Amino acid sequence: MAINWGALGIVFVVALAAVVVLTGLFAYGVRGLSERVTARANGGSGTVQLTGAVVCFAICTAVIGYGIYLIVA
């Protein structure tokens, strides 16, 4: 049995990049929700912050769903 180190390295790099991107998007979504609360407390609407947070969470959900699809299929 031989290990294809090149393919293993590619999988590692792609997985690491996906983790960094998903963590960043999720953190930005949480920050957007926090900024919305602050904006509403200061008399603003916070619509832009909420929209940004929802978009970030939607992208996270789509990427996770696609990953599950690739594993199951």
TrEMBL record:
The keyword Transmembrane helix belongs to this UniProt entry's keyword annotation: yes
Keyword field: Membrane, Transmembrane, Transmembrane helix
Keyword Transmembrane helix attached: yes
Positions of transmembrane segments: 7-30, 50-72
Name of the protein: DUF4190 domain-containing protein
